[in-house]
Amino acid sequence: MKARWDIFCSVVDNYGDIGVTWRLARQLVVEHACDVRLWVDDLRAFERMCPDIDVHLAQQWQEGVDVRHWPSEWVAAPAADVVIAAFACQLPPDYMEAMAERQRTPLWMNLDYLSAEEWVVGCHRLPSVKFKGVQKYFFFPGFRPGTGGLLREAGLLEQRHAFQQDVAAQQHFLQGLGVFPLAGARLISLFAYENAGLARWLDVLSTDGRATHLLVPEGRILGDVARWLGVEGLAAGAVHQRQALTVQVLPFVRQEQYDRLLWCCDFNAVRGEDSFVRAQWAGRPLLWHIYRQDEDIHLDKLDAFLELYTAALSPAARAALVSLWQAWNTEGDMAQPWKMLMEHWPEVLAHAERWCLEQGLQADLATALVQFYESWI
């Protein structure tokens, strides 16, 4: 019999949490024949990346996944064989009672946030708290051997490579979004949180000797882009040009389309967790806007990733990349770090592809979760 999985997602920053759990749920169904219920407390946020969602339904099927609205007033539901609390969300008390009442208690996991910090390896798959005999385990995605790996669908890297070799396919995709860049223009995608450091970066791009076409999916950074352009507001479809820089706002698209957008671009600025991982699978240089946390502890996570990611770069290229990422995440001056990065562009570009292929040698997150369940039973 197929194992039954329950994944609980409490939407915090609109897209990151649901982005990860939606990809995971679909992959468990398609590649591992799991029976998956995805409990989501905010269907309107979910609707942005899955427009077929009916936000008024308590239960519906989407791409083989049983999607359930997670109501504030819990309605009794039987516990599954595997229970995932995504990003440390708190399960409904009545559901926890249902877990404890099962003849065979479920495998209960806290799917934690992605981190490159060394301590993650030591904590991965360790037991956590118990609830009436039901043991919870830590499960950490990660970049190092000994972690749960990253979300990666079967054949993803092969699909990406074929797409990037097919200029006609890229042009067709971009034209479907209404994007018609100038010949030879640098393509950059920008998906980020609010950032006061954006203006200096856009200043540099606009005065560069090479044309840049900046593609900005709808999101929180639009206010900063609008202020730099000197316009009242921006919406999908807007196109503005200032000297060498063309700024175009794109609609929020499905995850598969966003993946292809990243594959088309020469450089990708991303945020949070889901888009961060997808930018790495694009095999192109990237800039990560990490989610800000109290007391700036997010900067420790940023430094841990940079230490791992830049280890194989030359000292000069490493310094350029590190200074750019640190400036972006502290709202510092982006002008000089960007110019430094351009001086080492061939090395940074080749490194992005190597890093992608190296990460692709590890088991993907969905497979690691299934393997843990199989070893647990």
From TrEMBL:
It catalyses: dTDP-beta-L-rhamnose + L-arginyl-[protein] = N(omega)-(alpha-L-rhamnosyl)-L-arginyl-[protein] + dTDP + H(+). InterPro entries: EarP (IPR016633). GO terms for molecular function: protein-arginine rhamnosyltransferase activity; translation elongation factor activity. Keywords: Elongation factor, Glycosyltransferase, Protein biosynthesis, Transferase. Pfam families: EarP. Transmembrane segments: none annotated. Belongs to the glycosyltransferase 104 family. Protein-arginine rhamnosyltransferase that catalyzes the transfer of a single rhamnose to elongation factor P (EF-P) on 'Lys-32', a modification required for EF-P-dependent rescue of polyproline stalled ribosomes. NCBIfam families: efp_Arg_rhamno. This is Protein-arginine rhamnosyltransferase. It comes from Pseudomonas extremaustralis.
